[in-house]
Amino acid sequence: MAHRQTLPVLPLRGTVIFPGLTQPIAAGRPSTLRAIESALKGDRLVFAVAQRDNTEEPTSDILYSMGVIARIGQIQRGLGGVQLLLQGEQRATALQYSTADGFLSAVIVPAEEMNPQTENDPAFTALQKETRERAAELGERRGLPEEVVHQVLDSVTEPGRFADLVAGYIELPVPEKQGLLETLSVEERLRRVLVHVQRQVGLLEAQEDIKSQVQEELGERQREMYLREQLKTIQKELGDDDSSKEITELRDKLAKLELSKEARAEVERELGRLERAGRESMEAQVIRTYLEWIAELPWNKRSDDQLELKHAEAVLEEDHYGLKDVKDRVLEFLAVRQLRATQLADEVEKTGEVPAARLLTEKDDATPTLAVGEKADRAITDKAEAKSRAMAKGPILLFIGPPGVGKTSIAKSIARSLGREYVRVALGGARDEADIRGHRRTYVGAMPGRIIQGLKQAGTKNPVFLLDEVDKLGTSYQGDPSSALLEVLDPAQNDTFTDHYLGIPFDLSEVIFIATGNFVQNIPGPLLDRMEVVDFAGYTEKEKAEIAKKYLLPRQLEESGLSDKDITFTEEAIMSIVSNYTRESGVRQLERQIGAVSRKLARKIASSEDVKHVVDVEGVRDLLGRPRVHPEHALAESEVGIATGMYYTPMGGDIMFVEASIRRYYGKPDGDGSATVGPNGAVSLILTGQLGDVMKESARAAFTYATNNAAKLGIPRDRLGAIEAHIHVPAGAIPKDGPSAGIAIATALVSEMSDRPVKQDVAMTGEITLRGRVLPIGGLKEKVLGAHRAGIKTIIIPKGNEADIEDVPEEVRKTLEFHPVETLNEVLEIALVPAEPGEQAAPPLEIMGVA
Fold first, then answer.
1. Burial 597-633 (b: 16+ CB within 10 A, else e)
2. Which terminus of the chain is more exposed, N or C, with fewer CB under 10 A?
């Protein structure tokens, strides 16, 4: 019976050691290092056995039962573990594994080989000879010198040891090597080793044949292409040519597209280039990406339009409060297109076709005309296409207005009402023409522009396409993106829009384009000419309160988790948030403040604090703190030298006060650049309050008019001559500019110089000339709303703005008194408190010597 012994176990990952072979091993696991230390203290023997899988902490369950008794030879210690040489001595079988002192031990018994009964048997001798010859051939094919191969093989004569030697050097997976180790029959082990050697020799022969074939095909081509073609040939030999499958699938996708003749020729050309290029080459990747873009674009997919005007009106009313003028314009926009689409669809049904030219460049109130240069022979034979193209034709809407008034959401509602896909592209900050038209494919990382990307995102060729913040486009050395939009927004050209990346025309004529912006002045003229402006004015405080009740409050309560907590806001509380905590034309800041109230309530409820379920004005004050907004209010009483003007900003309208003061001056001017030197060296005009050039010019014009018309304006003589007139607009840290404060400055000056107070409830706006004419201004609706909020009762406006009063909401018009004027004299008659009887009028100006 074989002698049993207990040895430390050395688990092997990814390798098998055979008897008679010396192999370097790297050991770093703590348990393995302890096993090595235990062996070094004894006779340096270990039981080297392979793991079934590559786990970090081996157990007896994952170790094979047969291994090799190995002796530890040279050992070298390092930071990560040890490097040692293991020399296999004899096969052995583990009878039992156990763990002690932190490492595995095994009770083993040596395994005896089974030699053939007759070693001189001709069949066994032939097997040995064939194995030696094939092993020598394998070594030589691998590039080893012939003398080295024979020296190694001839050093072993015993058949079993020879089989183990060859098994240790051939490349096999661990399970197959373990199988050779466990084959105790020498003859069987030799036969299995011969099979593996012969298989590897055949593989090397096939590789050499492939190599020679590739060399004949490629000749002197560079090494990279040679290697790629070699891989391609190998894939063909194995029947695993994924590249051809991908190309076939791509070709099938492209074949289903309705492409023009020009586009089809380009696609076929690129497909041919892709088939000729190597699968992993950079050129093939670029071509494949290009063709995938072509395949994924909606060349012939469109949404079915819903031609119900009542449905569109219901959607607009459901999504937005107020904006009556805007909704009317949008419904007119849709009504004309729906009627036209129905007409053309009926024509297709009756005649079978509609000339393509009939669908071009139509106006809302005009009959269709034939575009210059359009091919009249093309016809539309599909009802859906005729409807879609007719719906898209016509002016492109440009929504202009301050932030937060609903420009973007109106566009989304239009898409919903039509049943079309909605795509939004933010153009704010775009400074490169390639953002619109794409990059040419010669550039690394080239990609299509935002228009083509948006159509891919929509998945249809007739979406509602929103070009957001079109007034924020920039220019740089890389081109002008606003110029690139000219073709996109021109119905006579965009049916052949060519993106630089695609290089083939794409039809944008079925897309409904809508643009938005805050300042129409920032949009280039040629681009603005292609669009029809729809003005979005700011909301009144009453409209904001209604929007808060219907839309903002329910949404914020739901987002804060309070929708089921029975929280309600009083109307006074909502109005308090509108007037005391927000100052804007839109409702974004209002929604943020309502959200702040909701979050604070949610925190109190989550903390189990007592909360009033009805939020009133006091509750808003407690939750939001002191009011953040302090708008101007009308003066408590009429004062001399203070006039109330009106101004407009993108955040809304408001009032401002213009103050004037005069005094006789006996010294020299300061020369600070803000005063005009009059006769006799006296300073005649000082302007303060960070006024812009336009306001300074208005002030000088007003001062000239007041001094030149002093007699009829009732200005006493002691208020003329060597005087200093100081005009100041409060809030000196805020820059101010614009012509519309002209009559307010003139009124304040005349009031101060004639010592007549300005009525406290009168506000005015208008530009003034040297002759006292009052010229029209812009932004009247916002200015009037701001004055109404401030408590003004009487509004003086230029006669040229009389028609703009209709833009003011009716509930505001009813509470105000409007006075359209043409001259400054009319302004003064309305704004100034009448003079007391017996006041001395000024003498003729030539006596004063006033310039």
1. bbbbbbeebeeeeebeeebbeebbeebbeeeeeeebe
2. N
Residue type for position 838: G
> Apex CA 121: angle with CA 116 and CA 126, to 5°?
100
Give the closest residue to 365 by CA, choosing from 385, 395, 392: 395
Tell me what the mean pLDDT of segment 754-775 comes to.
Answer: 91
Neighbours of 835 (CB within 10 A): 13
Is 80 exceeded by the pLDDT of residue 234? no
Model confidence at 386, pLDDT cuts 50, 70, 90, reads low
For 651-740, where are the alpha helices, taking DSSP H only?
A: 693-708, 710-713
Q: How far is C-alpha 523 from the geometric centre of its chain's CA atoms?
A: 23
Let me know if 740 is a catalytic residue: yes
Asked if 178 contacts 192 with a C-beta cutoff of 8 angstroms, the reply is no
Phi, psi values for residue 620, rounded to 5° = -60, -40
Please name which of 639, 752, 757, 756 lies closest in space to residue 703, comparing C-alpha atoms: 752
Q: Which residues contact 506 (CB under 8 A, 6 or more apart)?
A: 297, 299, 452, 455, 497, 498, 499
Catalytic, out of 232, 407, 736, 783: 783
Q: How far apart are CA 414 and CA 423, in angstroms?
A: 12
Counting Cα atoms < 13 Å in the Cβ hemisphere of 756 gives 22
SS3 annotation, 130-192:
HHHHHHHHHHHHCCCCHHHHHHHHHCCCCHHHHHHHHHHHCCCCHHHHHHHHHCCEHHHHHHH
Whether the per-residue pLDDT at 106 is higher than 50: the answer is yes
Strands 683-688 and 723-728: parallel
| Mean pLDDT, range 92-117, rounded to an integer | 87
pTM over 0.85: no
Identify which of 77, 111, 267 has the alpha carbon closest to the alpha carbon of residue 181: 111
Asked if 609 contacts 565 with a C-beta cutoff of 8 angstroms, the reply is no
So what's the pLDDT on residue 679? 47
Torsion angle of C-alpha atoms 46, 49, 55, 60, degrees rounded to 10: -90
Torsion of CA 669, 672, 674, 677, to 10 degrees: 30
Across the strands, what pairs with 658?
A: 643
Residues near 846 by beta carbon (within 8 Å), at least 6 away in sequence: none
Cβ(401)–Cβ(536) below 8 Å = yes
Residues 6+ apart with CB under 8 A from 9: 35, 46, 47, 49, 63, 94, 97, 103, 104, 105, 106
Report the DSSP beta bridge partners of residue 648: 653
The enclosing H or E element of 516 equals strand 512-517
Query: Rounded to an integer, what distance in angstroms lies between the CA atom of residue 7 and that of residue 1?
Result: 18
Q: At what angle do helices 324-351 and 407-418 cross, to 10 degrees?
A: 30
Distance CA 182, CA 828 (A): 117
Q: Please give the sequence-ordered ranges of beta strands (E in DSSP) within 597-681, or none if there are none.
A: 614-615, 642-649, 652-664, 675-677
Which backbone phi and psi does 748 adopt, to 5 degrees? -60, -40
Q: Find the angle CA(752)-CA(756)-CA(758) to the nearest 5 degrees.
A: 85
**Torsions phi, psi of 51, nearest 5?**
-85, 150
Rounded distance between C-alpha atoms, residue 651 and residue 212, angstroms: 78
Place of tokens 């040891």: 161
The residues, ordered by sequence, that sit 6+ positions from 141 with a Cβ below 8 Å of its Cβ are: 201, 204, 205
How far, in Å, CA of 781 to CA of 681, rounded? 44
Written as one letter, the residue type at 334 is L
Structure tokens at 204: 């090397």
Q: Measure the CA–CA gap between 286 and 267, rounded to whole angstroms.
A: 14
Respond yes or no: is residue 783 known to be catalytic.
yes
Q: Which of 303, 388, 585, 740 is catalytic?
A: 740
Within a 10 A sphere around the Cβ of 183, how many other Cβ atoms? Answer: 19
